[in-house]
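Researcher: Please predict.
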Amino acid sequence: MAQPAFRFPRVTLSIAFVFLILAAIYGLPAATSLPAGGYDDPASESAQAREVLDREFDSGAMPIVFSVTTADGVDSDAARTRGQAIVDALRTYDYAAGITSYWTAQEAASALRSEDGRTGLVAAEIRGDDSDAPARAHELEQRLAGSSDGVDVAAGGVALAYFEANTQSREDLLLAEAVAIPLTLLVLVWVFGSAVAAVLPLVVALFATAATMAALRALSTVTDVSVFALNLATALCLALAIDYTLFVVNRYREELGSGLPPDAALRRTMQTAGRTVVYSATTVALSIAAMAVFPMYFLRSLAYAGLAGVLFCTIGSLVVAPAMIVLLGNRLDRWDLRKPILRALGRRPGEHRSIESGFWYRNTIAVMRRALPIALAVVALLLFLGSPFLGVAFGYPDDRVLPTSASARAVGDVVRSDFSQNLEGAVTIVLPDRSGVGAEALDAYYARLSTVGGVTAVATPDGTYAGGRLVAPPPEAGADRAGVSEFVTASTTVDPFSTAAKNQLDELRAVEAPAPVLFDGLAQRNIDNVDAIVSRVPLVLSLIALTTFVLVFLLTGSVVLPIKALVANLLSMTAAFGAVVWIFQDGHLGALGITPTGYLTANIPPLMFCVVFGLSMDYEIFVLSRIREEWVKSGRTAADNERAVALGLARSARIVTAAASIMAIVFAAIMVSEVSFMRMLGAGLTITVLLDAFLVRTILVPAFMRLAGRANWWAPEPLARWHEKRGWHEGGDVERDDLDGNGAPQPDSNVEREPPAVRA
């Protein structure tokens, strides 16, 4: 892959530049064209119910709500006039359906009037897909919301919440980049030791991000892609570009320090670090690809974004970065801005230092001397941090994912706090085919539904039932039973994401129906989505575990180290998941600026799992590749195992921790998002990356490998022979002397010229 960079660096960079410009021109419009939905399982019961509603009643659309507030009360002339005007205006739009209000639907008046009598609601449904309906809701808000004559009108509902989430996502994307890039550049200058070298990963990130956005826009022409895929793509491209480029540049400098000329050093780098990058990228890509197993296009979109991002980061770091290194030559290390600081610390940039004198070598030796108590302490700490996840609860994203300044959020807060009935908790019961069922049987069924605990009313074609009897006549357009399908709406007082809501659904299902029924509503959607995720978790875990095992075996030739990698990754994620529950579900640390709802959005844990597992394996591959490199050169005794671990970590830990620190900055920048589940994702990724790099890879891994001894490298004899012939051996069969054009003896491998990168 890197051959064009060696032979034709100018041509390579020219092609990359043209590709970047074209990709940016094509991909940037994706930020304004992608929808914000995709949280539902299209094969679920609730989705089937909405399909019937859309097909038979043209009402399976997104809700929009207008709150009409005045100090004189909802029965004042001003409120009535404004409310009626909104209803009349909505009726002029062919995409508005199911229009009702406090002033026009007497049977629902109590549900549409606030407890203090100052606010009344106008509700409707907006037809259209996840792109059209939100845009139409925004159009209606612009026309109908506002204040006049002492009456305040605000818009809310799912349709507008989607539009505001989409808009907020674009703003957050720009803000995250504005925060992450300057901070990242500062750290890169310190880590790379050169302002020139620090630009390399940013160029690779720019190349990968533009290409990924173009790929997502192209993909959106054939399938649904969520706008939030752009947020993940930007963060992942920046993080992985830095990760991979740092690994390549560090190895290149290491090879230069060992005495190789620049051309040979770069080739050796591609044969070692380059192969490790490909290996690491494969593990990250396969982990993220597992999200495509889930049926929600929100998660599938993020899988597409992750796969594209990993692919283009790999191409950038193995083609674009080497071409820049060739052209820059000795200028790569210009403008070392660390020199004054290093001199103040009594150190000189580029000085020769024994590996054994470095912090990470000494730290690893200290850990291995007390391997058992340290391993037990780290495992206990990670399990303790993960314990809050035992109380996790899942919910469906609503307007509370938005900041309090958003119109949909403000209206939603008013409805939740000032209205006696929980409008979000309404349950829709659909009878797809009631052929042969008499009106008496249907009415008796609806009457029984109205007696279920927590149900305040059941709106039917024949009128409204409450407490087992008919209490109001049908609306003006009701009582039409000409078709074979029918639906009713049960108003409730329960929180749709509570255990009470699940129990209420069970009771509603227990009411004997005269025909097959389908349930819809937030409570049912939440249950359906959690079931869809949970039912596929075993498959996702199996796929990730299998691919991880195979890839780590191919790298190491061991069946023990893959198991160790799986356990270490699970411990990292357990701790991170527990921290996320403790912060965002339980509401600690001020919930980092968002309103805790008492549950996590169901899509976030599988997203975190797949992304974090891949990133954890990223570090695992980097560390194991250097440890194995030392192991295969040794006599392969127990003492050699300890020395290989110490030398491998001494050569890789500073790179892994530096990369993790930068990656944490990138992911923490996602936390500037005003969309709560994106902030949750940013926090989860940041916590996991830091725990994994600083606690698991540099402390738990060496402790485990010391305890396992030579067993680390064990495999059954047939597998060992197979790996010897066909396994992935980093660096191939190329020897260092073959690469040194002068054929000079190489320096002592245990003394390295410190590359201009930070030593922790």
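Model: The chain has a mean pLDDT of 84.
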